[in-house]
Amino acid sequence: MSCYLYAVVPGPGRPSVEGLRGVGGATVSTVLEGDLVGVVSEVPDHEFDERALRAQLEDLTRLEAMARAHHGVVDTLADHATVLPLRLATVYRDHQRVREVLRERREEFAAVLASVDGRMEWGVKVYAVPSAPATSTPATSTPASASTASTSCASSAGESSSSRPVSGRAYLEQRLRLRRERDSGRRRAEEMSRRVDAELRGLAEDARHHRPQDPRLSGARGENVLNAAYLVPRSRGDEFSARVREFGVGESAVRVELTGPWAPYSFAAVESVEEREPSR
Amino acid sequence: MTEPALASREIALVDLLDRLLAGGVVITGDLTLSIADVDLVRVSLNALITSVKADMATPWDR
């Protein structure tokens, strides 16, 4: 058996993992080394060698099961303690190897644990929402995705309007109008994103931008123009989330979404400290 | 925090993967995801979602 490492937590006052289940339903346990604790469970070697792991990543059902199991452990820990989550699928041969890593990287772990202590992560996404089609517009000609759908959209619009002929010129004019609306909606969403980000950075201690989400993956309507994470003291979580919910009220072309609170995943990158944006 | 179990169920996979693949402490394990592996996940997801959507009658009418 190999040893899947979910997170590192401080040894003093460490949370109980009793009854907690991890990847593959395995019992979660702890490995103590000095003043740090690694939270682990056993995973079968044959599912966690290089080739098997690749196969797991390509299988959405198995990937999702692993991701949710990983998050389930981290999220439960975060309810009770400061937690440093690891990237998905960090696996060691045995407990001894986990101890070695905790010992070798003690300073880095301790520094990042201190920086996230008493704080949680909130996710904020801003979308440009395509306006509702005009009354004469066939519904199929309104793309759900501005950037990725144009080719298939054009063909599907052409096919679906065959029952109600539209002249080539009228069709092109309509496409042009839709594009202008989309561009102006996008500009509005980008302006809003800058405003949201600037204000939320003022409430947060740190911020990170993730890649905008592909609408095909998220299933969300509209184009994701901001996908940000903010590190916020637990005591200010209510204030932060209330402020986020106010953005976008009364806006038809822009949608603002809030997720969280999360364990500080986006602020736990010890290896890319130089990439971190200044915290004001 | 409130009802962690309920919250976990409602979390979108794509939000989760933003954090589990692009975030989290990256340390060298005896087995670790490489950048190539992380990109592989995105490619796999894209391919999968695209094929699912292609089966739908009006994929962009949402």
TrEMBL record, chain A:
Pfam families: GvpL_GvpF. Residues 132-170, 201-221 are annotated as: Disordered. One of its GO terms (biological process) is gas vesicle organization. The keyword Transmembrane helix does not apply. Keywords: Gas vesicle. It comes from the Bacteria. It is found in: Gas vesicle. Signal peptide: none annotated. Residues 201-214 have a biased composition (Basic and acidic residues). One of its GO terms (cellular component) is gas vesicle. Belongs to the gas vesicle GvpF/GvpL family. This is Gas vesicle protein. It comes from Wenjunlia tyrosinilytica. The lineage of its organism: Bacteria, Bacillati, Actinomycetota, Actinomycetes, Kitasatosporales.
UniProtKB/TrEMBL annotation, chain B:
It is found in: Gas vesicle. One of its GO terms (molecular function) is structural molecule activity. One of its GO terms (cellular component) is gas vesicle. Keywords: Gas vesicle. InterPro entries: Gas-vesicle_GvpA-like, GvpA. The keyword NADP does not apply. Pfam families: Gas_vesicle. The keyword Plastid does not apply. Belongs to the gas vesicle GvpA family. This is Gas vesicle protein.
